[in-house]
Amino acid sequence: xxxxxxxxxxxxxxxxxxxxxxxxxxxxxxxxxxxxxxxxxxxxxxxxxxxxxxxxxxxxxxxxxxxxxxxxxxxxxxxxxxxxxxxxxxxxxxxxxxxxxxxxxxxxxxxxxxxxxxxxxxxxxxxxxxxxxxxxxxxxxxxxxxxxxxxxxxxxxxxxxxxxxxxxxxxxxxxxxxxxxxxxxxxxxxxxxxxxxxxxxxxxxxxxxxxxxxxxxxxxxxxxxxxxxxxxxxxxxxxxxxxxxxxxxxxxxxxxxxxxxxxxxxxxxxxxxxxxxxxxxxxxx
Amino acid sequence: xxxxxxxxxxxxxxxxxxxxxxxxxxxxxxxxxxxxxxxxxxxxxxxxxxxxxxxxxxxxxxxxxxxxxxxxxxxxxxxxxxxxxxxxxxxxxxxxxxxxxxxxxxxxxxxxxxxxxxxxxxxxxxxxxxxxxxxxxxxxxxxxxxxxxxxxxxxxxxxxxxxxxxxxxxxxxxxxxx
Lengths: 285, 178
Ligand SMILES: Cc1cc2nc3c(=O)[nH]c(=O)nc-3n(C[C@H](O)[C@H](O)[C@H](O)COP(=O)(O)OP(=O)(O)OC[C@H]3O[C@@H](n4cnc5c(N)ncnc54)[C@H](O)[C@@H]3O)c2cc1C
Ligand code: FES
Ligand code: FES
Hints:
The structure holds two protein chains of two kinds. By secondary structure, chain A is of the alpha+beta class.
């Protein structure tokens, strides 16, 4: 099928984009890589009055070093994120998770910001942003504001972005000390979305786990942190036994759905296995 | 209608399109480039894969207006003057197709993969074409074909990427300039 007719705007700056959104009528959609939006428009699940295409807004693309943080422009493609030397150096978890997203054609167009704003519960990057305590820089008619990852993902396909606003960039704090990271994704066929996935970020100190941050993909309507596991691991000895014991509480506080891919109780089991694997690898064991 | 300028298989076209026109429909219906096919409605199958500004993309998931100012290569422009690109030749020789529906997309994705990784392992080939579905072959001979082409292209030193001379008779309404 082809999308319903729409008005098309192609701004070249953030200010122009905000203006195009403001003038676009009741139902305006921002077009990033289009890898989620165009399919839903083809199926006529979305039929916006105006589409504001961000692909010519150069200031939204690229990765830069901002001292204590890595800053990733919202329009940086999955391909460019995963091959970026700064991302590989400071946030290899993002590169590792991005490599598992879709396929090379989708990664050539789909963007980091688009995947985060789309906020699909099975999307791989929201849980990663949550585990890394990333911050979201949002531009709107009233200026800019910054929202922490813990407040950005509000509900199923819903973020803290208000109407008329744009995601501009994502700030990923650089981590001090000895950190290990791992993304463990489970799906049955190539190119498929995660049935469950776990993003683990672990700081080691003298054979112990000083701090663990664990993000869960597809264990609820939003990405979640496995707080019980994080608490059990803080200060614990970095051994396979302690990690396995802590991982048993990975499903605590989650509310996974049952769908064609898996039942909820299967997901609750899977998240424990994947948490053990991800933390073990991130702890360097 | 929005005017676009786009170079497709070495020929520059200036055309009016509706913003909602998908690149694949523009290629097939306005330019007559029916070598690029449509296999799904969900961006999954990869049959529609073309190169846009040097990267493989699913042309059913790009708007024609987004290709404005860009350069597109389709399966029809992969090799000059009716010849075969080493990848096309390898699919033929290694029996990398049965019905052939997935083949244009498979070939375009595989050529893109080899640009980034000229000497892939079998599992890297499989991952490289994970965005392309084949309902016939079971993929074994596709992987063999990609490996054969990779070997040939490594020996030849570089890929045959020069755009073809294209007969625009199929799209007589289009003003084509070289
Ligand atoms: C076959 C296939 C398989 C896939 N598999 C996976 C997978 O395994 N894992 C995974 O995580 N993802 C997967 N995806 C989704 C992919 O990651 C998309 O790239 C992503 O979801 C959307 O990014 P986009 O840039 O294409 O955004 P678009 O489709 O352009 O936009 C998505 C939504 O976000 C909004 N938006 C985008 N950018 C902004 C911005 N800067 N400010 C405000 N709003 C914005 C749009 O209005 C729209 O509502 C898959 C997609 C396909 C087609
Ligand atoms: S037709 Fe484009 S992915 Fe199936
Ligand atoms: S040869 Fe028939 S779909 Fe691949």
